[in-house]
């Protein structure tokens, strides 16, 4: 069975201690690099900002809020903002502590599945609202209310884009877990 979470580090410590007992100098311990965790944190914060701004703009667009597509955009982006806030907190925890909140396999599959689900929800809401904006009298553009509607749609698409990239990163982590038993890729072999 592949080594999981801290088992790889424990095996490296045991190997270093065995080499030390044999009189060989111990190499400096390799510190895990939380590059992927920090990347996920940045993507989560960006998705949070984009979806919260889209929800706020959709909520203040009074005329458009009477139509179902903008109510859907408001609801979807509000849900994505709440999800992104929780995931940003979990990513900050992981970047700071090096451990996941939930057991590693559960956390990886949870992140991967929910990133896809909420991302596609944001995409669908933004697409429906974009079609509604194009069909409305705002197609010519000009006034502030139309610009606010366009900005809400654009930010909804941005929230989807950040969640889509996060889904790619979490998919990479799932693939690493399935291949090696750890969410991180194995360090390069030193000869």
Automatic annotation (TrEMBL):
Compartments in which it is found: Cell membrane
Record membrane topology: Multi-pass membrane protein
Instruction: Give TM segment ranges.
Output: 35-60, 72-93, 151-175
UniProt keyword annotations, A-Z: Cell membrane, Membrane, Transmembrane, Transmembrane helix
Among InterPro entries, the record links this protein to: CASP_dom
Show the GO cellular component annotation of the record: plasma membrane
Indicate the principal place this protein occupies in or around the cell: membrane
- What region holds the Casparian strip membrane protein domain? 36-162
What subunit structure does UniProt give? Homodimer and heterodimers.
- Similarity-based family: Belongs to the Casparian strip membrane proteins (CASP) family.
This chain's protein is named CASP-like protein
């Amino acid at each position: 069975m592949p080594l999981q979470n801290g088992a790889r580090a424990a095996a490296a410590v045991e190997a270093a201690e065995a080499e030390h007992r044999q009189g060989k100098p111990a190499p400096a311990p390799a510190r895990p690099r939380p590059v992927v965790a920090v990347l996920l944190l940045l993507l989560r914060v960006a998705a949070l900002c984009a979806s919260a701004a889209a929800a706020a703009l959709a909520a203040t667009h009074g005329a458009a809020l009477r139509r179902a597509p903008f109510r859907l955009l408001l609801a979807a982006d509000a849900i994505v903002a709440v999800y992104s806030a929780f995931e940003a907190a979990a990513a900050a925890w992981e970047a700071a502590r090096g451990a996941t909140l939930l057991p590693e396999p559960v956390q990886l599959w949870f992140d991967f599945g929910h990133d896809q689900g909420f991302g596609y929800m944001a995409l669908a809401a933004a697409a429906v609202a974009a079609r509604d904006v194009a069909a409305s009298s705002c197609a010519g553009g000009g006034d502030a209310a139309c610009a606010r509607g366009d900005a809400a749609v654009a930010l909804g698409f941005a929230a989807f884009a950040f969640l889509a990239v996060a889904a790619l990163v979490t998919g990479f982590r799932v693939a690493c877990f399935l291949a090696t038993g750890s969410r991180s890729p194995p360090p390069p072999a030193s000869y």
